[in-house]
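Example: Amino acid/amide ABC transporter ATP-binding protein 2 (HAAT family).
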Amino acid sequence: MSEPILKLEGIETDIGRYHILSGVDLEMPRGQVTMLLGRNGVGKTTTLRSVIGHWRAKSGRILFDGQDITRMPTPAIARMGLGFVPEDMGIFSDLTVEENMTLAAASGPLSPKRRDRIFAAFPPLATFWRAPAGTLSGGQKQMLSIARAMAEERRLYLIDEPTKGLAPAIVSTMAAALRELKREGASILLVEQNFAVARALGDRAAVMEGGRIVWTGAMAELATDAKLQSRLLGLSVEGV
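Written out as structure tokens, the predicted fold is:
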């Protein structure tokens, strides 16, 4: 069995005076989509931000492809091939779509090949390429947010609730783009509240409660066990 692409060992993270993560342990297989699930406020976003270095873990260790990145600055982590899509999208509204993508391609100009690949995944971005990003719809802004992470080759994507509040047609576009990233060999750690999306995309699942991982296993196992869903997530999604 290959070494995990991402490994968290006893991660504890505080935000101000609040203790958010209480010893997160997680191993993420490479080339798969791992769903990070749980009720609101259990530490999912903090886990992603601890990995990328936005919030510094006070103890524990984070290994990305075997290398300790726990104390590395965020730009250095990103240069290693780790992309982050925050829940708040992180786009620059006053800049055009093209300018947003140019800024995201830190190692050089966005190549025509990569641009065309992004247009194939998210056709509206081609239509609004030179329009201010602030004029896009909510779904189009989310497309741009994911596209920014795709501006360079990434081995691992951390994506925080990409389908939140979006129409079903946009959700389908997002899911198709994420499947394509996986097909190309990328690994994805995905926070998602839409269980139907989690069931359709996920290979593995890790469920959080109280700032730690309380269950890991195959997404298919969780998706077909209503009692397990009720115990871990507080509701039954059988038949969703």
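The first strand starts at residue 6 and ends at 15.
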